[in-house]
Amino acid sequence: MTAPALSAAQRERIMASFARQGFLRGMGARIVDLETGRCAIELPFGDAVSQQHGFFHGGAIGALADTAGGYAAMTMVRDDQEVVTLEYKINFLRPAVGDHLIAQGDVLRAGRSVIVVRVDVYAVDGGRQVLCAALQQSIAPVPATGP
User: Which residues form a coiled coil (predicted)?
Assistant: First the structure.
């Protein structure tokens, strides 16, 4: 059974929320895929997201993955709710080297009080994608407070 498509209003609400993400916007991130239970965010490589060995910084990878998972979860909540991360565990599988990263968040289970999401992070170099990190997180729906 396939999940219902996101409505235009849901998509607009999530994109407006992402536009308020000063941290990720400042790093140049953008949503590249958004469906019910799924969100992918792309982050280009640059000095602001690198570490001393020339790889993507683990903190940037964690923030990117956490955010992709959060917006995947947000596709599953009511219009009067937003989401916050309760916890996450990330495994760095190999150095993140490439032109950009893509974090693909997929909801594993959407309960009333906790949403569990898995996020795979790929380093993309040219056309080659390599899995560089895997994150699993718990997300809580909360009452919407923003615009």
Answer: none
Contacts (Cβ under 8 Å, ≥6 apart) of 141: 73, 77, 78, 81, 82, 83, 112, 113, 115
Residues 48-85: pLDDT tens digits?
898 999 999 999 999 999 999 999 999 999 999 999 99
pTM above 0.90, yes or no: yes
Instruction: Give me the pLDDT at residue 77, please.
Output: 96
Burial class (CB in 10 A: 0-12, 13-18, 19+), 28: middle
The Cα 105–Cα 36 span in angstroms is: 11
State the Cα–Cα distance between residues 146 and 36, nearest whole angstrom.
21
**CATH number for the 8-143 domain, one of 3.30.310.50, 2.102.10.10, 2.40.50.140, 3.10.129.10?**
3.10.129.10
Contact 107, 139 (CB under 8 A): no
Q: Which two tokens stand for residue 3?
A: 């999940």
Mean pLDDT of 102-123: 97
> Domain extents for the chain?
8-143
